[in-house]
Structures are given as structure tokens and as C-alpha cells.
Amino acid sequence: LEEKLIFEIGSTDTTGVDFADAPQAASRLGSLARTDGIGLPGLSEQETVRHYTRLSRQNYAIDLGLFPLGSCTMKHNPRLNEKVARMPGFADIHPLQPQSTVQGALGVINELAVWLITLTGMHGVAMTPKAGAHGELCGLLCIRAALEARGDARQVVLVPESAHGTNPATAAFCGYKVEDIPATPDGRVDLEALKARLGPDVAAVMITNPNTCGLFERDMKVISDAVHAAGAFVYCDGANFNAIVGRVRPGDLGVDAMHINLHKTFSTPHGGGGPGSGPVVLSEALSPFGPLPYTARMADGTIHLIEEDNVGEEMPQSFGRMSAFHGQMGMFTRALTYILSHGADGLRQVAEDAVLNANYVLRSLEDVLDAPFGASGPCMHEALFSDKGLAEGFTTLDIAKGLIDEGFHPMTMYFPLVVHGAMLVEPTETESKAALDQFILALRSLAERAKAGDEALKGAPYHAPRRRLDETLAARKPVLSWSEPDLADAAE
Amino acid sequence: LEEKLIFEIGSTDTTGVDFADAPQAASRLGSLARTDGIGLPGLSEQETVRHYTRLSRQNYAIDLGLFPLGSCTMKHNPRLNEKVARMPGFADIHPLQPQSTVQGALGVINELAVWLITLTGMHGVAMTPKAGAHGELCGLLCIRAALEARGDARQVVLVPESAHGTNPATAAFCGYKVEDIPATPDGRVDLEALKARLGPDVAAVMITNPNTCGLFERDMKVISDAVHAAGAFVYCDGANFNAIVGRVRPGDLGVDAMHINLHKTFSTPHGGGGPGSGPVVLSEALSPFGPLPYTARMADGTIHLIEEDNVGEEMPQSFGRMSAFHGQMGMFTRALTYILSHGADGLRQVAEDAVLNANYVLRSLEDVLDAPFGASGPCMHEALFSDKGLAEGFTTLDIAKGLIDEGFHPMTMYFPLVVHGAMLVEPTETESKAALDQFILALRSLAERAKAGDEALKGAPYHAPRRRLDETLAARKPVLSWSEPDLADAAE
Amino acid sequence: MRYLPLTDGDRQAMLATIGAASIDDLFVDVPAEARLAGTIPGLPDHASEMAVERHMAALARKNLSAGEAPFFLGAGAYKHHVPASVDHLIQRGEFLTAYTPYQPEIAQGTLQVLFEFQTQVARLLGCDVANASMYDGSTACWEAIGMARRITKRGKAILSSGLHPHYVSVAQTMAKFTGDELAYATPELDSECDNSKLIAAIDKDTSCVVVQYPDILGRIEDLTALADAAHTAGALLVAVVTEPVALGAIKAPGAMGADIVVGEGQSLGVGLQFGGPYLGLFACKQKYVRQMPGRLCGETVDAAGKRGFVLTLSTREQHIRREKATSNICTNSGLCALAFSIHMTLLGEKGLRQLAGLNHALACQAADRLAKVPGVTLMNDSFFNEFTLILPTDAREAVRNLADRGILAGVSLGRLFPTAPDLANGLVVAVTETTTAEDIEALAKALEEELA
Amino acid sequence: MRYLPLTDGDRQAMLATIGAASIDDLFVDVPAEARLAGTIPGLPDHASEMAVERHMAALARKNLSAGEAPFFLGAGAYKHHVPASVDHLIQRGEFLTAYTPYQPEIAQGTLQVLFEFQTQVARLLGCDVANASMYDGSTACWEAIGMARRITKRGKAILSSGLHPHYVSVAQTMAKFTGDELAYATPELDSECDNSKLIAAIDKDTSCVVVQYPDILGRIEDLTALADAAHTAGALLVAVVTEPVALGAIKAPGAMGADIVVGEGQSLGVGLQFGGPYLGLFACKQKYVRQMPGRLCGETVDAAGKRGFVLTLSTREQHIRREKATSNICTNSGLCALAFSIHMTLLGEKGLRQLAGLNHALACQAADRLAKVPGVTLMNDSFFNEFTLILPTDAREAVRNLADRGILAGVSLGRLFPTAPDLANGLVVAVTETTTAEDIEALAKALEEELA
Description:
The complex is a heterotetramer, with 2 copies of chain A and 2 copies of chain C. Chain A is α/β, with parallel strands linked by helices. Helices cover 35% and strands 10% of the residues of chain A. Chain A has 15 helices and 14 strands. In chain A, the strands form 4 sheets. A 7-stranded mixed β-sheet of chain A has the order 1-7-6-5-4-2-3, sandwiched between helices. Chain A has a 3-stranded antiparallel β-sheet with strand order 12-14-13. In chain A, strands 8-11 form a two-stranded parallel sheet. In chain A, helix 7 links the parallel strand 2 and strand 3 (177-181). Chain A is globular, with a radius of gyration of 25 Å. Chain C is globular, with a radius of gyration of 25 Å. Chains in contact: A-B, A-C, A-D, B-C, B-D, C-D. Chains C, D: This is Probable glycine dehydrogenase (decarboxylating) subunit 1.
């Protein structure tokens, strides 16, 4: 299971592509013609297919088994979505084509927008953000634009300790000062601490709901009211929307902005790290400030694109463009396909089954694994455990790596930070009871081994393409690109 | 690496497909409505994707590595072919649509037919046969029809010892008596023995050329002349056309009929055992007898279909239909795509590289493996070795299974029958020199181990999804379908 | 060339290893006069992927695809919706580019699929065992006749007039050479099948009776009496199913006494593809298994005791048995069998029954609507998803005219039976879950105009 | 529901294990007034795969796809032929449905691809190191400006007038909030770039100069003097490449002194897709690597000493560093990076050079032909595969009219710079290997008629 690098097997004289001969023409490149060797190896088509096919087999994937990564929502990716996204009418159109030639594409954006607004009970939606973190950025930019529009240059964003790292990073990225909000012992935002901190310098509160402990923020509406009363806005991290879609509308809870990870709730594939897509639904107060381009359906049924040239009449308060084009169109087609497949009734069932599966895992394992908030009631779509009770020297990492040998991807580990040695398990609604039972059995056995101090566990995984990798070495002496071995040796 | 059966994981209450509700209608099924439980388990889409994805990973395939099966021509399957075959204009048309609505499909058949005729230097081609063996059948039916047309009911077909098993089976399947022709010590048809046997009872001689020892039948033209002089026909098994395509036209050698395995020479995928496709090129003498449906291009450029209703005027001597529709259209589109990609120059290169690769393997290994015909000159597209010189008790099978542990598919073994413990290696032209060198190294090491009597080799493979399987048990007590375990137990 | 990895440098180095001066030296065994010096005249040279794709796409656009028009063709090939995941899975390189599983240690994926496929097919058709596939329904049908001959040692097969005429034609082609006698007549435009005539024809020389179910005109009738009559005379009943979806709604032929059931599996997973590749289904009673043609996959264990699968009973097959084989078939329809099996797994029994129910209900709707077209008569009392209309005019002409209006109206009996003028006004109309109410209305309207 | 495997029986059994009476009991933490009793009003219920596919196909058919028309749009997104094997490979479930490779033991496939991708990108752009991708070229461009600020501790960036106006717009959006100062003016219709003006504008507060190459009007100029001037002033040169195929024919920005090179990788492997998902390329000199945003994959060894790959230097990233991270980026464009890398591997240096040469030669042909259209002037002296025509009329109107005739003629400068009336007659025309001589002639003829 070792596959050489393309630089070790290919050559710059080999190609897997044929071209027609170029017609004769006088070059317009002037003195800029590239004459150096670039160092890009080629392979024939067969060698290419083999290289990537073999490499792919070193990956774990949802197509191979349960992927219980908390907060990441690794659910089944339907193949119809892939087929639809590849229709030439979607895959082969240019973002700057005249509007008359892309009414279907604008229609997809608009139809998806209507679904997102309706499912969340919000007023508007910004479709362009390219991932969840980009959506957070969009939401905060709207908030900042709204505050500036009223001449109110607030500088602080409050973020709970349990937040995703993107939340504080995003706030900082657009110039805010970030302050933590503590958690209560039952794993939720400390309402009193929050209220105490609210004041005229606070621009927004960023809350994840359901939160990263897998719990619903019971006080969400109260929080929203308090935030609004203090003149600030509520940003909701929608990474966990999968737990409530079709059953709860964030708009009913006073949220001003929330991004939706289409690759989580709406099943677009994660692709080994993207592309994602993060549309942001907006309250009436924030909608006027959303980004360009924007789409709107006209009275005559045509879909109308709002860009720089008509933004003045149509959306004068827009904060501007946040990426070159319309956003992740390829993900919109997939997400809309998924949404239409489920419909309103199916999406409600999604939330129910996601929550049911997580509670089933929680209750099936709380006798062998510490469930810090298990006593406070049901969880939502993910079950949180801690490393409490493991034998001396045994860690969450050992259990995670042990899962690999059992044929599963590890759960999310050491997150959220509010729980020691956190193990966050999100089975999602697309897992069958049989798959859950197998997973529970495996995790139970690992928990027992870690409590009993089975030393073998510390060496796991044994049955993966690689044993544990030396991450310290990688960071201490970074090798980030390939170079000829002799050159590399000489450099040492 | 054990994957349960669908019958063990699915249930008859589960489905991975949704349907619209059926409209109300009075049944026309009468008393025939099916009321029994059929016993067909269903899985959700995710479970389905997982089951088959996991199962696929227990297979070896060309996409994973070199596949040196002699006579099978496991070459690269270009992905463009797959894309083209899936264009709705090809994939989604019915064989009985009016001709005016399928001119493109008839055009594909006709264009491919022209290529096959021109590449082989023959007069006509029957496109309908559905695999090589079906093509053999077609060829013999043409021969029989031609003989009967002249009132000559010959009953014997001569087949060399080294022939593929399909040759004698086909001859018997259409009512012929089969007789062997011996081979010369240099691995070719014994011309004198053949001549001696020719007579008024012989309908045809079936010859594979290049033959199954990987050698070109030097006397082919002489054989053809002798066969024709005796009033019989020459059938050529075209399984090995890959070795000579673009460099030699069988028509120039006196062949009357030859099937072409599109899945060998023309790269359509083997698919784990089909579908194949076996068009048969025909001499002028045999062309009038070919099967229906037939296509022909008219003076006005339209493609015209000859079926039962117009066969009388157009092809009155046709022997009739040999399958329901037009043949393997899906394979025609792939093969034509491949042929157009290579063109006349590329196909010639195919033959050259296929032969070069085989000779490279032959000469790189003849010092450690017995090459029975190595001294007689170059081989064509496959290198033949025997088990001579292996230690007592070590067999071709051990070497074949040992290759699995080295990461390769075994070569063809124990075929052709004329060589003891035959190992027939066909690398094909789509293997790189680097891949060949790796393979040669592996086979060399196995040969050395088998000569040295390394007992471990007898247990190979060790690193495959399964160890050696008990084929005797399977045949002695056949279990050909799954049944509930308790029922099975009760039956014993 | 994008598919040929050898560089000129590689070629020179390899020739040196071989000890040959040039490639030509490797072709010395070819007689000089047959060795071509250059490329074959009259053929173009290689082309880029883009150029080839454009050429093929232009050809594809010259066809009117089923998805582009109201579509009602059946008669042995049916348009069904195939879930996207089926095509995704069969394109996995490990399935697509694998060989026949002769090396079971590294072919368990294909082998387990075949074992599951055999079980699914046997259950669907109501038989004990099924093989791993044949080329298509028509060749499977002939193989069944040959198998009946081997079992009964009799050479006369009685073919129902309801058997697909192309299947009949294939059998007639082969029988010319094997000497089997085939009794066959073209069908009549009657609401009843010819089962009673078949029963009357059975005699002591009869190897088998071959009956299609539903038949070529869409009729369905109970096979029990036919099976009994055949068995009484020492003959076999061979049933042919060209639309396997039907068996989600109607009784299995095996359950009504058929000894061998063959079929065309194209409806599930495979798609129309202008007639091929398709998928021959072949199943029979346990006692006849050693007379079966084609590959069989069986369960066994490996050296470590693990369950595994192998190709088995290959002493029936050509590569072992040569001229004494039960058939000459080698390559079959492996990938189509995979597609069928995946589609069947997605459906499950629940989905198959829903699918069959939807097909039947829509067909009933269509039959009722089309029977209202002035001059048109519905021939069938019974049918599943396909029925025969009797038009007041030549149906073949009508079908061509409707095609010019962009409607693919069905299969005319004139196309299927060109030598039977009595059938010329018959039109076989198939309806599946892909047919919409708008499609039905479009056909009805167009037919009204055509016949006006 | 086809994607939800739980049966009602399963649900009951699981509720019993949990000890809950109903699903509603699991939602008790949701305030009662926010708990919806039924489905959300105004939305349809679930639909079959076939129904959804038909709905989406109908929408797709309302678009005029690039393959259906003579097509000349570029300006940051290019139509290239992507080999079929690229799409086949990225659809392997093990790539498509994998997560970010945080568990390297079971993600070596993705990780090795990223390592290879980083190397390919670094070499193509002429830099030492590249990251594992960003969202797209425009966001990568802003990230580069932010990185230059962190490195130089200066807040003023000078943007070339040749920079894509949408990239400028993204930077302006962000700068409003971060306080960066951006110097920018719209371009002039001149055959020369504004490099000399940029050099003149550099001062001690300048963090970086941002220049596009080839620029938005298709011009290419040597960046060496600009790099020298920036470095002399302690500023960085950021180069932006929106058409990476160009670098098969023209010098790499890194080789001319650029400190950071960002780009849009869509041209290779990814396809047009109406603007997304695309692929941000990001590369820089080795010394700046710890200030880089985005994921990085590095080589290491496993516990058994085997070479392996891991995500590394993650202390720059948000999930470790939170508000002190170099960027908030988390999910990036992994699958697009895979597609790019596969396409680049298929091409190799030889193929890339051929591809670039073919693009340039066809563009030269097109420029010569279109410059002959009466009233039309070719603005560029230098270009790669894209150039600017000056029409005698408003180009935006002309583009719309040509679209009505089925010709997608290019990108008008009026669309890109709606507030710059001086540019209104400019038309940016892109030509690639997919452009045929017939396409060029069709555009020329249509333009002649439009302008007549």
C-alpha cells in the first residue's frame, strides 16, 4: 500500500492527452515565452487512472462506512445530485453569460433561496459565500454594515467557549475584538454572564444552535431578545442545522444571520476537504446589506441579477462583492436536488432520525463512557462523551485510533473544548440501526479496553494504510513540496 | 474484508427507491396477481452504495495494475469511451424506433463496420454477434449456409489442439463433428497433417492467428489455399487481432470469416465477464449469408436497415437472425470511439507496442523460465512459458497465486494445452516499461522460489481478500443460491 | 498517443534487451507480402479526445432519444428509470475493468455479486437456481430449447404464437443447423392466448413448449394447465419473460410449473441502448442444473475457513469440456448482471411491487384513454404494462407518421411480423413509470389526428 | 424515503432503548412555541428520483451551454476540454465522500494528492511552496493582501488597473472592515499595462503591489522591474493569474520576482459551472510560509518508518489558533484541487506546453480575423489566449444581441466596469483549444452584421 509520487513515476516527456496541431501564427508573447523546465511530470491515461485509483483506496469515506464526525454531518451523498450537477446546462455555462442565456441557472439559485428562507423562517438569503466560514464572514459583514449604517461602530463580538474555531477567527478577520462567553455546567451558554457583558460596544453574539455539545440552547429566544435590546445582533452558526431542519425555524428564535453548510445539512459531498457552500439567511434588519451578486424573481417570472451596475437602485446598502462570481453553483444544484427529493416532510424526518440516532448512541454507551451532559436530558443530533474514567495514560486519541482498526472513522475528538478529552459522535440520519449497533459494539469494546488499560490500544491503528504519523516532525521541519532526492540531501 | 450478503443485511420492507403514488385503476391482472413473498431484500441508497463499493474493493482490475492474462488482452479502457456510450442519443434509444429517428445509431454501426472491413481487408461484416463465441457461431453458420447453398452438406470442422475451448464447442453447438489437428514442435499448425486430413467431408478449418502459443502461423496463406482447394472455408479466431491490427490484414491471408472481440482489440471493458461483442468480418464468398439485421449506407447518405421485411430483395441468402436486436450497440460506440482516437497510425502502433512488450517479457525471463518456443524466433503479443524446471511438486498454479501476493493478476495458466503447465503472459500495449520491469522482477523472483522449492509459495496467496478457495467442495455440493440458514440446516 | 505509455526511448531500450534491430524484426513470421509497410489506406489518423467526442456527440444528436419524446415502445425492451447510483457503482474501476473471475482470491467482489444475482433471479422467476447470465433473452431462449432437447432427448419444440418473433427467428436460425423441429404460427388478434392450442399440440416427441409471459401482445394467462400437460407428456415447459418488472405484480412462471424460465433482464439497471448489451436471465429447477448452459457461481470456503465464492460446475463449460460443453458461451453479460442486481437491491421487494403496481396502473389509464380514440380498439382483456391496440389503418405507417411529429408511439405488428398482413393494424403500446399523463394525452391526441 | 434507512419498527425499538415515548420527547429543549407541529407550510413534499431529475433537467435546458454555441467568454473563467478520466476519478467514492484528512492513517489518498498538488502549483507559478487550495482566485487575492499586511506591517496595497474588477471588488469589501487602504483605478484601453504607474506609486507605506498576469484586458508584461521596485521599498509583489494554462507558454510570476502568486485554477480540471466551485491557488516564497493562510500538507513518517503525509503547520489555522489564525478558512476546494492535479498529471509538462501553444495560436488567428471586421480595432500588442477588441459601439449591447443569435461573443467591459463609460466599447474575447475555425468565422460574420 505504498504508491509512489507522480514525480517519481512520471516524466516531463510523457503525456496522457493528445492535441490537434497548432495552426501557424506569429507569437504575441514577446520576450515572455517560458523557456525554463517547469518540472511537471506527465503520465499516460492508464498510469493516471491507476495512480489515483490506488491512492483513493487509502482513504476512508462515507461510501465505505459510518463516519461519526461530530459537527461535520457526514451523511450519505446521493448520486442523483452528482448526475444533475453534471448536466451541461449547469456544468458548462459561464458566470458572465448574458442573463437571457442563463435563466435556468438563475432559477436554481432563486428556487434554492426560497427553500432556505422558508425552512429557516428568515427574510432574505445571501447565496454567494463559498463555505461555512465564508458565510460567517458574510453575516458579520452584514452586521457591521448595518451598524455603520446607523453610525454605531461597535467593536466587540461575543463568542461562547464551545464555538467552532472559525467563529473567533472570522470575527477577527473582519476587524472585531473577540471575547469569550462562559458555559453553564449543563453545557449551554451562561445566560446571566452573557446579559452582564452586553453593552453598547457589543456588535454581535455568535451562537451555535444546536451547540457544539450537541444540545439545544433552551434560552435562545431570551438571548436573542436580550441581544437585540442591547442594540446588537445575533449570529447563529448553522453547522448543526441538520438536527432541526423542518422542525424548528431559527427565524422564530430571533436569529439575525445564520449560515447553512450545504455540505452538511443538504448532503453535498465533502470531497476530502471541500468545496463547501455557505449561504447566509438574514433577518429583515440585515437583508438590505447582503452581498452582490443577488438574484430576484420579477413579476414577469424572469430572474433578475443584481450586480454593480444596478445595485444603486436595487440594493444601495449592499456591502459589495465577497467573491468573484455567483457562489458555489455546483453545490446549489446538488443541494436543491436533495431538498426536492426530501421535500418538507422528508426534511422533517431527517431531523427526527438524526436526533433519534444520536440519542440511541448516547443511551447505548453512557454506561461505559462518561456522558457529561447525559443527565440533563436528550441530546440533539450528536452524542458527547469525555475521557473521564479511562485508565491512567489512556486518552481519547487511543479510542479514536482504535476505531480505525474496527473499520470506522474516528469521532470528532478534543472538541468542544469545554469537555475534557471530548468525543463527539454524530451518526446522522442516513445510518441504519444495524450500522449503529455495529458501531456501538465497537466503541463499547474500545471503552472497555481503555478502562482496563489494554496497552495494545496505544499502538492503534494496526490495520490502516499507515500507523500513527509523526505530526511533530512534519511541523518542525516542514516538507511541503517534492524535490529531487539528491537535491534534498544536498540541502541538509 | 468480509461483506455480508444482501440477504443477510437487507429486508423486504426496505427500499432505496421512491415512487409517485399509483393512480387508481381497475386491475387487469385477473387471478394472476402475485401474492407470495418473493424474498427480495432491499437496502437504502446509502447501504447499497456501501455494499457494492466494499465488494468492488475485493476485486483486482486493470485500473489497479498490470493484468497479464494471455489471450484475454486486458488493456486500458479509456474513460472517453464510457462517457460517449452514456450520451442519451446512444444510451436511451429503443431498437425498434422508426429508422428516421435513429440515423445516428445506424451511422455508428455503419462507420464501425467500414473500419472493421478496412482494417481486416475483408468484404463484409456481421455486426450482431454478442461476444467472441457468438461470432464463431455466426462464422460457422455463414459457412454452413454457403455450403448448403451449393448443396454440399459437409460435416467436419478441423480445430487445432491449441484452440480456445469455444472453437470446438461452437462447431458442436451448430451440429458439426469436431476433429483435432496436431501441432508442430515449434507450436504451430502441422501443415502436412492438415493437408492430409482435408477432404470432401471437411466444412471448415478453425485457426487462431496469431495462435494461442503467441506465434504467428507462418503458413497461413498456404493453409488457406489448401483449404479453399479442398472446397472448405477458413475460420480465423480473431481473439489475438491485437497483435497485428494495422500491420496485417487477415483478408490478405485468405481468411473467410474472423470474429473480432471488441473487448480485446478495441478496448471495451471486460466488466467482470462481459458484455463482449464479436462482429465477424466475412469474405466475398460468405458475405451474402450474414445475419439480420444488417445495415447499409444508401446513395443519399441515409443508413438503411435490412430486416425480415426487406431481406428478400436485399439479402435473400441471409441465414436469419441470431439475436433479438442489432447487437452490442453500447460496445460499438465505445469501440468506434477508441478506433477514432487511435486512427490508422495509432492502431498500427498498438500492434507494434503489444508485440514489443511481449518480446521484452519473453527475453527478460527466458533465463529463469522455460520458454518452449523461445528459440524459434520472436513471439507476437504474448510470451509463453512452461513449468519445466520447477522443483518437484511446484506448479504453474503456485507461481500464479504467488503473483497475487506481488500485487499482480496471474497470467493465463494451463492454456494452451499443447504446453505442459503453460503460463501465457500478454502484457498489452498500454503497459509502461516501468510496469513491465516491476512485473518481470516479480515473476523472476517467483520462478526462482519455485525452482528452489520454497514451500511458502504453495500457500500463496497470503495477502489477498481470500486464501486459496476450495473449488472441489463447491462443485461436489453446489450451493448456487442463498437460503435462510435454518432452512439450509434443516435440509441437510 | 494518450493511451500508449512507451516513449521512443523506451522502445529503443527494449529492442536492445530483446536483441532486435527494429520492430519489423519482431514481425518476421508474417509473410513479407502480408506485412503492410505503412498505415492502411483510406483511414484517418489519430484524433484528440475533444475531436472524437465532438464527432460522436454529433452522431448521438441525430437520434431521437426516448427521454425527448412521448415514448411507448416495448416489445422486448423497456424504458425504465434507473437510479443514478446504479450507473455510479458499475463504473467503479474494480467492477468495470475486471476480468471474468477465474482467480477467485482476487475476484470476490464480482463473485459475491453473481451469487446474489443468481439468488435474486431464481426468486424473481420462481425457480431453484439461476445462472450468472446469458447474452440476452433471445439467445437464452434458444439455449433453453437446446437444454430441453438434452434432458428429454427429443427434438421437437412447440413455440407459442405469443413468443417474441425475433426470439422465434433466433431459434429458427439455430434449428436449421441443429435439426430441431420447431412448431410455430404467428399470433391472432385475440384477447386470449393460444395455450389450449399448445396443449393440444403436445405429443410424445415434444421436448418442450415455449411460452412467453406476458406475451408479445401483452396478454397474461395462467401457465399451470400448460405445465401439467407438458409434464404429462414427458416434455418441459419453458417460460420466457421479456419484462421482469411484471413479476413484481404477477405470479412467477416457476410457481406455475415452468421447468426452465428464461428472460430478458434489460428492464432493471441496463437501459435501452438500441438493443444491446442486454442481459439473458436463465433459471431452472434444481434437478436440471448440470444440464444448464453458462457460468455458475457457487459458495465454498477458503484455506482459512472463510466463506468465499467461485465459478463452479465448469465441467459443463467450453473451456473445460470443449465440444461436449452444454453451450459455447464464454463471455456473458457480467456488468449488466451487476447493474440488474444493484437496481434490484435498491428496489427490494417493496420497491419492486410499487414499481410494478405503478406500471400497471398507468398502463390501465393509458389503455382506457387510447381505447377512446375513434376507430381504435383495445385487444387485451388482461395485460401488465403493455397492450395491443387495433387501429383502423396500417399501424406501421401510423407509427412513422407519429415519429415525424415527435411521438414514439409504440411497436407496430407490421414491424414485428412483416409477413402477416392480418396483423398489420396492430400496435403494441408499452407504458412504464416514466410515462406521464401528458405523454398519454399527447399520444391520444396525435392518434386522433392521424386517424381523422 | 430512499436516503433514510430507519423503518418505523427500528424507530420504535430505538425509542424504547432511549426510554422516550416519542420523537417529540427528544425535542423538549426546544421552546414549545418554536416547535413546529407539522411540515413547514408552502413547501412541497418528497418526490421520486425521476421527478426531481426531470425538474432539474428542465431548468438546465433553459441555459445556453458553452458547448452549444460559438463561445468566447473568459475574464477569469475559461472553457477548456477536460479529459473524461478526470471526472471519472474524482467521482470515486473514496475521494468524493471523504472528509478533510484530519485522520492521516486513513486519508493518505487525499493527503498524497494534496502534496502532489502543492508541488505542481508551486512549480507552475514559479514559487517555493503552495497551499492546499483556497475558495477561488478572488478570495485568494484578498488573502494575499492580508498576508502582505502581516509580513510588512503596512496597510496600503496598490492594485493594478489590470486586476479583475471583481477581485478588486472583493478586496474593497474586506478593506472597508479591516481598514486596509487600497489604491486602484479602472484601466485604460491601451496596449500597455500600467506597470510604470504602479512603480511610481510605491512608497514606504506600501504593503504590496497586486498585479494580474495576463491582465483583465489580456495584456502580458514582464514583472521584473515591478518586483524590484516593490522590494526596494520593502513591499511585496503579489501576482494574480486567472488563466493558469498561460504559464505553459509564458514565464512564471515567481521567476520574475513575485513574492506571493495567487490564481484561479478553474481552467484545469474544474470546468465553468456558472462561477463555482472554483479553485484558489496560493503560493509564495519559502520564507513566508508561516504567514500563509490555508491548509498545508507535509511529508513525514509513520510509527513503522514509512513515508506518509499529514496536514501540518496548523497552528496558523482557525481550529487551533482561533482569533489569532492567519485566516478563517476551513473547508477549501479539496475536490477541485484533485481535479486540477489529475488534469495536470495527464497533461504533464509536454501536454501543458502543447495546450498553451494551441491556445495561443488559435487566439492569434482569431485576433487577426476579428481585427478585419470593419470598425473593430484590436487593442493588444501582447496577449496569451485573450485579447480586447474596441468596437465602434457599446459592446454590452452587442454581446446581448449576438447572444440572441446563439453566439456567446465574449465579455463586454461594460459588464465588468459598469461605472466606466470610457470602456463601454471594449470587448474581451477568449479563445481556447475548444474554439474552432468555424466558431471564429461565425463570430466575425455575426459581428460584421451587428455592426453594419
